[in-house]
Structures are given as C-alpha cells and as structure tokens.
Amino acid sequence: MEIVVCVKPVPEAETRLRVAADARSFDAEGVKFVLAGYDESAVEQALLLKEATPGSHVHVVAAGPSPRTEEVLRASIALGCDAATFVEMPNAPAPDPIATARALAGAIRALPHDLVLCGKQAGDDEGGLVAAALGELLGLPDFGYVVDLRWDAAAARLRFQRSAEAGQELWESPLPCVVGLQQAWNDPRTAKLPAILKSRKAPIAKVAPPADATGHPTSHAEKFELPPPRMGAKLIEFKTPPEAAEKLVKLLREEAKVFP
Amino acid sequence: MTPGILVVGEVQNGRLAPATLEALGVARAVAPSGDPIVGFVSGAAGKSAAADFARFGVGHVYCAEDPRLDAAPVGAIAHAVAAAAGAAGAALVLVGGTTFGRDLVGRLAIRWDASAATGVTELVRADGALRVRRSVFGGRAHETRRMEGPRCAVALRPHAFSVPAEAPMALTVESIATADLPSNLIAPRRVEVRAPDRGAGPSLSDAAIVVSGGRGLRGPEDFHLVDELAAALGAAVGASRAVTDAGWRPASFQVGQTGKAVSPQLYVAVGISGAIQHIVGMVSSRCIVAINSDASAPIFKVADYGIVGDLFEIVPALTAEVRRARAP
Known about the structure:
The complex is a heterodimer.
Chain A: E1 2-6, E2 9-11, E3 33-35, H1 37-52, E4 57-64, H2 68-79, E5 83-88, H3 97-109, E6 115-119, H4 130-138, E7 142-152, E8 157-164, E9 167-173, E10 177-181, H5 193-199, E11 205-207, E12 219-225, E13 234-235, H6 241-254
Parallel strand pairs in A: 1-4, 1-6, 4-5, 5-11, 6-10, 7-10
Antiparallel strand pairs in A: 2-3, 7-8, 8-9
Chain B: E1 4-8, E2 11-12, E3 15-16, H1 18-30, E4 37-42, H2 46-55, E5 60-64, H3 74-88, E6 90-95, H4 99-111, E7 115-126, E8 129-136, E9 141-147, E10 152-156, E11 172-175, H5 183-186, E12 189-194, E13 209-213, H6 224-233, E14 236-239, H7 241-245, E15 266-270, H8 276-279, E16 287-292, H9 299-302, E17 305-308, H10 311-326
Parallel strand pairs in B: 1-4, 1-6, 4-5, 5-11, 6-10, 7-10, 13-14, 13-15, 15-16, 16-17
Antiparallel strand pairs in B: 2-3, 7-8, 8-9
Helix pairs in contact in B: 3-4, 6-10
C-alpha cells in the first residue's frame, strides 16, 4: 500500500502565547515547534498499516515555512517514514488552510497514493479543513474524525470508525481515499536516538507550490487576540456541603445565567 | 437577484438538527437587508426536513432527495450542495458546527471555489466584506479573519449561537439532480451507527452542559457521583485522560487535547487537577466550575467558580440541590 501522510509543525502545547507586533498573528519568536499531536497519530497509523501490509511505503509530506517544516519531516522519518517531500511556503503572510491543501495536493499528485492520512486538525489554527479539501482536490472521498483504522485485504476495503454526534459510525471504503484521524487507537511511538541522528542526514525532496495554490478565494488574518487573563475562580465559602451547593446553584442561575 | 445565503441542513430523525437551526439564526441576523436565504437538505427524509426550514422563515429549499446520500461520505453531499449554491447564486454557505459541517466546508472550498472558515463564533457582514471571529489554540486565543472572494463557506462553532424564533412561511422545494455523482464518492458506505455507550444523556460534543470526572474520584466505583450530577443537570459525562487511561471509562469520554474538545455553556470539573492536556479541551466553555480538594490545583486558575472541598460530600449535596432547583 502506498501511504502518504501529511504533517504540520505547531507550537508546543505549553507555549505561552504572545501577540505579534502586527497584532494579526501570534509571535513565533523563540517558540519551539513540534509535530502536531493529531499528526503524530496520523504517522503512527501510517506506520501500523505499513507494518501490517507487506510491501507498503510511507511518504510524509508537509507544506509550510522553513526550517520548522523540514524539522517535522525529519521527526517523521525518525519515527519510521520512508521518504519526505517539503513544499516551501512563505512564513508571512501565513497561507490559509485551503492554500495549504492546494500546495499539499500538488505534491501528492506526483506520488503514488492509495491512502492519504492527516490529523483531523492542527492544535494551532484548528481549521480542520485540510483533509476534506485534499479529498476534493484529489477527486477522492474523505473521512474526518476517524479512529480505529484497519485494512481488510481480503475484501479490499478500509474499515474504520468515525466519532460523530450520533455516536460511533462504522464505515467501509475502497482505496484510494483521504482520512483525517481523530487520534490513534494506540499511543504514538517515540523515536529512538539512532533513528533521530540518522534522520538528520535523510534526503528531503523540495518542491515549489503548484500554480493553483494562489489566485483562489482565500482569507487573511486581521487580528489576533488573547482573552483577558482568567483571574482565577471565585471560591465559594461555606460551612456545610449543602450550603456550598446552594450558593453555587444561585451563582450559576443569577450571575452566570447558565443554570438549565 | 442579490447574492444570497444558503443554509445547509443536517437531518436528525427527520427534522433539522439544532446545529442547523443555529446556522439559520445566523443567516437571518446577517441578512437584514433582505438578501434571500435558501435552504438545502439531502437524503430520503429531505422533503420532510424541508418543512422545518419553512417553519423558521426559509421558504425556498433545494432538495437532493437521494437515499444514497444518507450513508455516503461528505464528498458526495458536497457535490449536491455546490450545485444548489450555484443554482441559488449564493455568495455565502452556512452550516452548523458539527463534524459533517466542518468536513463539508473543506470540500466546498474547492468544489465551489470559495474561501472557508470553521469554528466561527461571530460573523459580520459590513462594508461589502465578511469577517469571522474564531477561537484558536484550544480557546487560548481568538482570531479575526477577512474572507476574500465572491464566495465563502462557513461552519459555525457549536452552541455559539442560539436557535431563532419560529417564523412560518410557505414552502417551495426545488430538486437537485444527483444522477452524475462520481462512483468513487458513492462507493464508501456507512454500515452502522453505534449510539454512544453513555446511557441516555446528550453526546459530549453536542451537550450544553458537561460534567467531567477525574482521578480525584479514586476509583471507577465512585464515578456514579459524576453520572448522577450529570443526570440532574441534563448534562453529558466526560472524563480526564487519567480516568480513561485507567479504564474507568472508555476513551470516548475523554475531554482534552487527545480526546474531544468541548465548549458547552457550563463545564463542571469534578476531582480534575487541570493538566494542560485537559485544559485545552475545555477552556473555551462559557462557564467553568471546579470541585477539588486541593486549593492549589491548576483547574482553579481557569475556572469561574470553585469549591475547595471533599468531592465525596460536595457532589452529592450539589446533585440534591440541582434536583431541588429544577423540580417543577
């Protein structure tokens, strides 16, 4: 099976967010970027499928600014991906998710692809648009919010679950298709030191974004704001538990106005 | 004809889903000058759900009454939506903030050549421009984006808008042909839907109120305290990663970075210390209540109201008080 997995660098979860000088984006100065959490799950899923399906190959693709995007490609190689393609995009203005999907699709079209895997969204912009846009660009069905993906070789069907509002949906689909993963059904592996060292020298194919990555309707960030710092909880003073309960219900009803 | 707004309907038990009604309310609010608002429904129950559009003031509905669309991937439905948006001459497609809505907007951005945004909490049309506000970084920041181009597809954030008042009017249904759907978009099938293994309460991502339990509960045998408070509030039950990792509750209950992100009106954290992993999944809730015995727990930094105390005493008292307060 030829598997393509799309990854993206995002700021570490613990990053203290600051507003950039232009007030339109967050300040990336000194911020450490890592492989997005959902993308880690996508890489893990790709590697599990490869291990279960002899003769498979995992190609990791990313579109974004240098050098952080190359770094997550190397991190994916250290985890076990076989090859990498980097579509270089400008750092500013940050491309919107649809422009990113167009750039990724350009690279994927040039690769054999039975299955395209993505994280369902990234932890920064939370667009969740890339998998669906890729599906349409590649002329393939796409599925978001997927967990527990298995390849049924005998039936030539991918079987998986989707977490939706109505419950767990069970799906089957022939290949090729695009899948956005909710989270892996087992914990993503961590890279071993020798693999990390080796990945530093791994070749990364560099391609330019396709011509159709620009010139379409897009969106531009105009403002980036941090909420006023939470002042900490109003602590309820009480002598007995029923008194605490009574005071809380009163606050929820009269002050917060969220009591059902 | 003025460029109008197309609201994409999601059908639940033959009726429009609450998320669609929220989108309808937004359409009515941003089209004060009388821009036409039209609806879209698909699937075998399409026509009956179309009547709901008319009940809420949208009298012209495009209907792809093709039963294949009931169990088909979003790509097939996006074909029909794009056809309807084209037929209506729409400039804006609005959809509720469900898993379907978010996926649909990504497909439409390409199929209908539109700018796209998801998780939108505010939408303003002024000076010929459309601006959206959305929460990013797990609710730790907000961005405002200007949507460029003549067409735009937007998925809202669940619960960010209220359901509008009814405004009944006459209904016209216009059929959307689906005969030419590409076969590879129809071949994948949804073969089964398993209702969440969580009893009768609302689902976690839909719920207006969520009560989550953490390690402070000490063991699975005490998790019923959370279940009972949730039942009294009509809330969905969630859990911290510690709880799902320990197997007290299935992974589908997990709220957090690697679980579900929720943004209910009210979030009650019971015996949850507040690791960043958990916080990013719930911090954008409108009101947060924390109950924990450790006054230095980080959850109290993000909560609006806190009770420092023994949850084994506080939670049963709170359940009793909620029942009393909600009794007719």
